Amino acid sequence: MDPRALIDPARRRAAAAAFLIALAAGLVAASPVLDGLRGLSLDVLTALRWRAFGNPYPPASSPTVVVALDEETFATAPFEGTPTVTWTREIGRVLTAIIDGGAAVVGFDIVLPTSIEQSAVPFGDDTLGTRLRGFDRDFLRALALGARAGKVVLGEVQHRDKPVLPSPGQRAAVGFGRNIRALNVYEDPDQVIRRVPLAFTVDGAPTPGMAAELAARATSAPIAKVRPGAVPGTLTLDFAGGAGDIPTFSFVDLHACLDKDPEFFRRQFAGKIVLFGSVLDVEDRKLTSKRFATAPERANGARCALSPPAEPRAFARGSIAGVYIHATAVNNLVRGDALAEFGRLGTGLAAFALAAFAAAAALALGPAAAVASVVGLAAVWTAGATHAFRGALALPLLEPLVAAVLALGTTIGYRLVVANRTIAAQLAARRAHEAEMASAAAIQRAMLPSLGEGGFAAGGFDVFPYMMPAREIGGDLYDVAPLDRDRLMISIGDVCGKGIPASLFMAITQTVMRLVARTGEDFAAEINAANQMLVANNSEMMFATLFCALVDLTSGAVAYCNCGHCPALLLRRGASNFEALRNLGPPLAISERAKYVPRSIALAPGDMLFLYTDGVTEAENPRAELFGAARLEAALHEVGGRPARAVVEHVVKRVAEFAAGAPPSDDLTCVAVVRSEAPAA
User: Fold this and answer.
1) 563 near 585, Cβ under 8 Å?
2) Which of 217, 429, 619, 668 is the most buried (most CB within 10 A)?
3) pLDDT tens-digit profile of 192-203?
4) Range of the domain at 554
């Protein structure tokens, strides 16, 4: 067996190993071990989309706006230096103006769990709460009126041990649970908020969360089916980048606007979903999936009464105010652009695809080129995932890339440590085989007659043979053997096939010919005897074409027999046409009933006889054209009257020029026989 064929199983084993490596990498990427990368992928894609494409919606189109209890509010009269528990009357006035301005619904992302009316701090003969009884009346009236119209939703924080609820008066004003919804969010294990629950179980019954409730009331319709996320029952938030996507109004500016421009509220809040919440530098700040895409926060909504405060030296934090989480969730629900995430199966398939590419690159390319190809793949995958993210489709970004890196490193290690070792062993076997073939070629050359560099010269005859195998060893043969002082046997042959079988049958044929043609006394009997010997036990059905000639060195008489071989070409001195010495019978070893009858010619001084195999006339060039008999005759005409060696070398040169580097398809063998003008002394 050719050892080159043994390399294919090794490569198949390497390919199978690469497949298993890619499969394992895909399974690891989709396993809970790398769940942290799922959230990080959302964070990175949010930042990439913002940096590459900006935000898809202008701020004015946001269904939701925020009324911010911000740093400006806390630093401006009448709220400066006062506790928020005393702000309720003013909050109620602003709330009433917003509802009267046509707001679709108002939600509170802040919880005021106590009332100053509940204070038990002594104040004279009574408590402070008793002295301030009725302080929250305007606020509670505003809540009650808004709740009755279905336009107010208070927030609470669900907690198993002690929930954070609005004060009892606020709960009663809004009708208790009918208009109170949970503000809880979903934190991933890395304490980053990327999802919001759509519903909670309250007293054994499912109750919508704040975002779902506000969206449903604003659209007067149940929330449509939300795109699937990684966590059942949650909405995966599709944050815009920066800080200007949700219009934000400073509470203190709206408070000052109450008496200055009441119509401002209609212009800014008609049809909007309004969220009251704190937007502070330190308190109530959350890490979310836009942590890499934040910008300095400020009240960016239209101003009504107060001049904008002097801009402090702003910087972007990784966190955002908690109110923007619910504002984003409401916008996602109203617009229907919440993120759709791949499940474990989709993530595993994507990871396997990239890992398979990386493993294939590691097998097919060198380490540096494989790394470069995987880097290119990573760039393409990242670009594709970023583009898909514009349509709210969150392809798994990092998990497939990690799988590709794992597969790349593991496959390169396998290739270097295991596969290369196997291939090295196969290559060693191949080199051993090549050494054996070289020995066989040397043995085959040794079987050819040793004539020296000038060929054979005697009795005025000049003979020069040449053979070039298409492979290490060939199936062509030639022989130049003196039978006695005055006679010379010259033969050329071509065994069917190539390689080792042809070379073995060539050796047998040459041996048989030397055995039977000892005397040349009965040339016909000797040729027929050779055929009988080759036919016997020829189970492989091999055969050989042969042209054999007996040359009388004294008279120039030539007895020849062409056994299915290419016609020998005889060029007489001064002639322009060749005489073709054609077949006198089938190739040897074809049939035991074949009969061969030699013929005779005479070579005069200056005549040339050229013997060749089909490797000369059937030599191909890169255009698959054959050298052919016409080009051979033309080449022989070019060297008419030259010594035998010059004739052979010229023909071989012309064949090489014609082939123009195309690999030979067959062995090339030829023998030139030239009778000199005058016999050698």
Assistant:
1) yes
2) 668
3) 999 999 988 877
4) 452-675
